[in-house]
Design brief:
Oligomer: heterodimer
Helix content of chain B: 55-70%
Number of helices of chain A: 20
Largest sheet of chain A: 7 strands, mixed
Shape of chain A: elongated
Structural class of chain B: mainly alpha
Largest interface: A-B, 36 and 27 residues
Number of helices of chain B: 6
C-alpha cells in the first residue's frame, strides 16, 4: 500500500516535472520561432551589418595630358582621417592630442568628437607628413582611422589653370576642362563587401562580392606646355609692366582651330582653388566680353572687299581727321590726309573705317559680322562660353554703323575674335576652336579623336590672301603694330585700343582702355594665330605699345620652338654663309 | 522466384533466419519468414538493403565499420577546420601583401608626380639661368632646316 502511494506520488511529481519541462521547451521553441522565423530578416540584416562592411572603391579620375603627353592633371591616393565620436571616451583629451598633428584648433576638433555620431571626418586628403604625425601618436584604432581617397593634383601648379579648371573634394569637375569633360574623366565607383572578424579586420571570403571601379578616361589636350609657359610668362611681364586689371592671351593653330595656349592673368593654383576668390577662376578668354576697338576693322575690311564695296587701291579722304555719323563725330588720333584702303588698316584710321562701313551698308555689314561668328558661341569645349552681343540692324541707331566700324557697340570674347581672324589666315574658313584632341580609355584605347571642323566659309581665298597681305603692313614701318614684327618672319596683325564705358556716367571713359593685338605668323603660311587683350593698363595704353610686344615675344619663341624656318632659314645658302 | 531472390542467390549469398536479419520486416510482410521477405524485395530495396554477409571477415568488418566511419568523419572534420584556418591565415597574409602593394603603387605614383612637379618649366628655367648660368638662345643663332631641302636629314 505504502509502495503504491509512493509510486502514485512519484508519478504525479514526474508528470509535474514533465509538464514544467514541456512548458520550458515550448517557451524555448516559441522563442526560436520568434527569432528564426518572425524576426529572421531583421536580425540577419543586423548580423550582416556587424560582420560585413561595404567599402566604396573610388575610381581613378582620368589624367589630363598636354599634346606631347606631359601630365597636367593627375589623381593621387591620399589618406583621410575619420573618427567614431560615439566610441570616444574623452573628446577633449583626444582633440588636444590631434590638434598639433592636424594643424586644426582643438576646439573645432572637440566639437566634432563631441557629436556622438558614428562617423565624422576630421581631415580629408591629408599630406603624407601629417598622416605620419597622426600615426606616430598611436591612437586607438577603434576611435579614429584612415580611409583612402583620391585627390586631384596639378603638378604644373598655376600653368593653364583656367583651361584645366579643377576638381572638388568629391572629385567632381568644377571648372574648365575638368567640368566640361567630367563624365569622361570621373569613371564609375566600385565596391567590395568585406567580412570582418571581431577586431574589425577583414576576413578573406571564398565568395567575393565585388564590383570593380571603372577608371576615368584620359584626355589629351591641344595645349602645348611649352607654348603655354611662354605665353603665361609674357602675360606676367605685361601685368608687371602695365599694372593692368587683367590680361588674356590665346595661341591657336589657325588651320585647325586647335588651341595651343590659353592664359589669363591673374591666375590661381588649382591645387588650392578654394583659397582664391571665385572671380579668379573665370576663364576670361571665353566668358568675358569686351568691345574690340580697331581690331574689328579687319572684319569690316574683309567684308567690304568680299562684297566688292571697295577695291584695294581705292582712296579715302581722311584729311579732316573727323567724320560725322548720326549727328556725332568720330575722330582719328592723327590727321592722315588721303589714305588707300590698306593704309586705313595700316594706320588704323577711324575716319576711313567709317567710310568703308558706309559703302558696305548696314545689312551686309551685319551679315558679315554674323558670318565671322560674332554673336554666337564658337562651340569651344569649355564651360561658360559667352555668346557675345551683336544687335540686330533694326535696333541700330544712326550712329551704330560708325561705332561698329571702329569696334564699338559690339561685345566679343577674345576667343571669338581670334577664331574670326584665323579664318583670314587659313584661306577664308571659319573653324571651330577646340581643346581636347583625344579621349583614351585607361588602357590606352582611343575612344574619340577630334577632327578639325569647318563651320563655314566666310570669305573667298582671294579675299583672305589680300587681307593678310594688307595686314602685314600693320607690323611694318609706319604701321600701328610695328612692335609686333619678328625678325625673319612676316607678321599680319592688327592693333586695337578700345575705350571702356565708365559705369558711373555711361559714357566712354578717357582713361580706361582695353589694349589688344591679334595677328598670325608667318603671314605667308600661318601656323600660329595669337591674340593679346590687356584690360585697363596704366600709363601708355596703345595696343601697339602694350599688346604688340607681347605678341612678338610669344610668337617669336613659339615659332622657334615649333621649328618653323624663318625667311633666312629658307635661303639655301644660309648654311654656307655661316 | 522473385527477381530479388534470384539476384541474391546468383551472388551465392544465403538468406539467414528472418529473426536475425529482418527484425522489422519488409513492406508489411512478417519478419519471421526470411524467404518471403527476400521474395518481396523489389529491385530498389535490393539495392538499398544489403543481405547480411557471412563469415568471420564480414563480422569483423561489421564490428569495426562504425569506428572507421567515426574516424573518417573526425578526420574529415579536422581537415575541413584546418583548411578553413589556413584560408583565414592566408587571407590575412594576402590582405597584408595587398596593403604593401597599394602602398608601393601609391609611393610610385607620388614619385612620378614629384618628378613632374620638379620638371616644371619655370623651375628648369630658373635653375638654368641662376644656377647653371645658361643664357636664352638668340633667335638668330637658330637655324631650322627644311626637310624638303634636306630629305636625308632629320629634325632635331
Amino acid at each position: 500500500m505504502v509502495a503504491d502511494r509512493l509510486d502514485a506520488r512519484f508519478q504525479k511529481r514526474l508528470v509535474i516535472v514533465f509538464c514544467l519541462l514541456g512548458v520550458g521547451f515550448l517557451a524555448v521553441i516559441l522563442r526560436l520561432v520568434l527569432l528564426m522565423v518572425i524576426q529572421h530578416q531583421d536580425l540577419a540584416r543586423k548580423a550582416d551589418r556587424q560582420h560585413q562592411k561595404t567599402v566604396q572603391i573610388e575610381p581613378r579620375r582620368g589624367t589630363i595630358y598636354d599634346r606631347n603627353g606631359r601630365e597636367l592633371a593627375v589623381s593621387l591616393e591620399t589618406d583621410s582621417l575619420y573618427a567614431v565620436p560615439s566610441a570616444v571616451d574623452d573628446p577633449k583629451a583626444l582633440a588636444a592630442r590631434l590638434s598639433p598633428a592636424l594643424g586644426l584648433p582643438a576646439s573645432a576638433l572637440k566639437r566634432k568628437l563631441d557629436s556622438g555620431r558614428s562617423f565624422e571626418w576630421l581631415l580629408r586628403k591629408m599630406d603624407p607628413a601629417r598622416v605620419a604625425q597622426v600615426k606616430a601618436l598611436g591612437l586607438d584604432s577603434q576611435t579614429i582611422g584612415f580611409l583612402t581617397e583620391s585627390r586631384r593634383f596639378y603638378p604644373r601648379r598655376n600653368l593653364a589653370s583656367h583651361a584645366l579648371g579643377f576638381a572638388g573634394m568629391d572629385n567632381r569637375g568644377l571648372e574648365g576642362i575638368e567640368l566640361q569633360y567630367d563624365p569622361y574623366l570621373s569613371g564609375e565607383s566600385g565596391w567590395i563587401l568585406l567580412e570582418r572578424d571581431a577586431l574589425g579586420k577583414p576576413l578573406f571570403s571564398e565568395k567575393l562580392h565585388y564590383r570593380a571601379p571603372s577608371p576615368g578616361h584620359d584626355l589629351a589636350l591641344t595645349l602645348d606646355e611649352v607654348i603655354q609657359y611662354l605665353t603665361e610668362k609674357e602675360m606676367d611681364r605685361v601685368m608687371a609692366e602695365t599694372q593692368a586689371k587683367d590680361a588674356t592671351a590665346i595661341v591657336m593653330d589657325p588651320r585647325t582651330g586647335a588651341i595651343l595656349a590659353l592664359a589669363t592673368r591673374p591666375e590661381f593654383n588649382p591645387n588650392a582653388a578654394s583659397k582664391y576668390q571665385p572671380a579668379r577662376w573665370k576663364n576670361r578668354p571665353v566668358t568675358d566680353l569686351y568691345e574690340p576697338g580697331s581690331t574689328f576693322k579687319v572684319f569690316l575690311a574683309a567684308a567690304a572687299l568680299e562684297a566688292g564695296a571697295v577695291r584695294p587701291w581705292d582712296r579715302f579722304d581722311c584729311g579732316a581727321g573727323r567724320i560725322e555719323v548720326g549727328g556725332k563725330a568720330i575722330h582719328d588720333v592723327h590727321r592722315h590726309g588721303v589714305l588707300t584702303f590698306h593704309e586705313i588698316l595700316m594706320k588704323s584710321s577711324n575716319v576711313g573705317a567709317v567710310q568703308i562701313a558706309q559703302r558696305l551698308g548696314k545689312e551686309r555689314f551685319h551679315q558679315a559680322i554674323r558670318d565671322f561668328g560674332f554673336g554666337q558661341k564658337s562651340g569651344v569645349d569649355l564651360p561658360g562660353e559667352a555668346t557675345g552681343i551683336v544687335r540686330d540692324p533694326k535696333a541700330w541707331s544712326a550712329m551704330s554703323i560708325g561705332a561698329l566700324a571702329i569696334g564699338q557697340e559690339i561685345g566679343v570674347t577674345p576667343l571669338q575674335l581670334l577664331t574670326a581672324f584665323s579664318a583670314l589666315a587659313n584661306g577664308g574658313l571659319l573653324v571651330k576652336p577646340y581643346l581636347v584632341s583625344e579621349i583614351r580609355s585607361a588602357d590606352g584605347r582611343l575612344l574619340r579623336g577630334t577632327r578639325p571642323e569647318v563651320v563655314r566659309r566666310v570669305v573667298s581665298e582671294e579675299t583672305a590672301r589680300q587681307m593678310l597681305a594688307m595686314l602685314q603692313s600693320v607690323t611694318e614701318e609706319g604701321g600701328t603694330g610695328k612692335r609686333a614684327a619678328i625678325a625673319g618672319f612676316a607678321v599680319a596683325g592688327k592693333t586695337g585700343t578700345a575705350q571702356k564705358i565708365d559705369p558711373r556716367t555711361g559714357l566712354y571713359a578717357h582713361d580706361r582702355f582695353v589694349s589688344s593685338f591679334v595677328g598670325v605668323a608667318p603671314a605667308e603660311d600661318p601656323v600660329i594665330a595669337v591674340i593679346i587683350v590687356v584690360n585697363e593698363p596704366r600709363g601708355v595704353a596703345w595696343g601697339g605699345s602694350v599688346a604688340a610686344p607681347a605678341f612678338r615675344a610669344i610668337a617669336e619663341q613659339s615659332l622657334a620652338y615649333l621649328r618653323i624656318p624663318s625667311r633666312d632659314d629658307r635661303h639655301p645658302l644660309r648654311m654656307a654663309r655661316r | 522466384m522473385s527477381e530479388g531472390r534470384r539476384k541474391i542467390e546468383d551472388r551465392g549469398w544465403k538468406i539467414e533466419d528472418s529473426s536475425k536479419v529482418w527484425s522489422q520486416g519488409v513492406n508489411g510482410v512478417a519478419a519471421h519468414d526470411g524467404q518471403k521477405v527476400a521474395e518481396t524485395l523489389s529491385m530498389d530495396l535490393f539495392d538499398r538493403w544489403r543481405p547480411v554477409l557471412q563469415g568471420e571477415r564480414q563480422v569483423a568488418l561489421r564490428r569495426w565499420l562504425p569506428l572507421l566511419l567515426g574516424l573518417l568523419l573526425l578526420g574529415g572534420t579536422l581537415l575541413h577546420v584546418w583548411q578553413r584556418v589556413q584560408v583565414i591565415r592566408l587571407g590575412y597574409a594576402l590582405e597584408e601583401i595587398q596593403g604593401r602593394k597599394q602602398a608601393l603603387l601609391r609611393s610610385n605614383k607620388t614619385l612620378q608626380v614629384e618628378a613632374a612637379t620638379l620638371s616644371t618649366l619655370d623651375r628648369v628655367e630658373r635653375i638654368a639661368l641662376r644656377e647653371v648660368g645658361l643664357q636664352p638662345l638668340d633667335r638668330s643663332r637658330i637655324v631650322v632646316l627644311r626637310q624638303d631641302l634636306f630629305p636625308g636629314g632629320r629634325r632635331w
